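In this section we walk through a basic example: taking a raw amino acid sequence and producing a predicted 3D structure, encoded as discrete structure tokens. The instruction is simple. Fold the sequence below.
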Amino acid sequence: MTAPLQNDRLLRALARQPVDRTPIWIMRQAGRYLPEYRATRARAGSFMDLCRSADLACEVTLQPLERYDLDAAILFSDILTIPDAMGLGLKFVKGEGPVFERPVRSAADVARLPKPDMGTDLGYVMNAVSTIRKALDGRVPLIGFTGSPWTLATYMVEGGGTKDFAKVKGLVYSDPKAAHDLLGRLADAVTDYLNAQIEAGAQALMVFDTWGGVLAPHDYRDFSLQYMQRIVDGLNRKRPDGSYVPVTLFTKGGGQWASWIADTGADGIGLDWTVNLDTIREKVGDRVALQGNLDPSVLYAPDEVIEREVARILEEFGPNPGHVFNLGHGIHQHVNPDKVKVLVDAVHRLSARD
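The resulting token sequence is shown next.
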């Protein structure tokens, strides 16, 4: 028997229902900007060891909630768990980030990819979800997440991070059949992965399409959005207890395609700081909630500037329901943790309804 939810602002906002104040959570809220996270990470030995320990993943997931009055927890994990489970030899190299020993460069490479088993290959993620959900004890909802098929494919084909996306775009243009085969396999794996997170206790879902914005519009629809559509269609969004699990799609640099994203049937659209919320609301109406969209660099500013920018974004969205406050991308590792408290408190104070 799970504890009843004490703070349902996030779920109400994603359902476009009235809330007493705008909910806020922060992308990458459990991360390197927190000294307590760095201590736990050092104790774990490596980043993936931290992800694979349910107890340690739970510990770092809860750390920001002890500091700040956040309205949601998000599973501590990594977007590359699925490619790792496909046997590509994931390593995290200091100064480089994620690197795959065996990148996917051809149709033959795609054909050899195994389908990950959610219980064995990725069971550690589900253990973390259930452990965190139990530890939260109804305090706030737990968000599960994944990378989008396109974003996962960029790392798998490039072999790591990239600035020009030459290899993955080269595959798209030279062998689109192989690219679609790869993306289809990833979409199926991601759907299974998110459904397993729902079964383990996730109460909301995020799909991070970090690199969708590097595509031309027609390529975005063909190689990114259609596969997120497949995922949305394949989710079991009703939990066994009858509660509904909303899903938010976030394409960095994708504000121009907000109306297309809304057409997928997702409950929310994540937005970065390159668009105005009022402009997007004009495009999508009240079909979806909007999440965002403070520039993370604002957190380097004086407190009064942070509060001013919070007020501007709240005013941009307006008084209608359906806003989840967030940064336009992940929090920077060098941000002063005290600035996050200024942000969270300002959102709640300035958005309070009478």
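Looking at the output, two observations stand out. The domain at 9-351 is CATH 3.20.20.210 (TIM Barrel). The two ends are 35 Å apart (CA to CA). In the next section we compare this with other chains.
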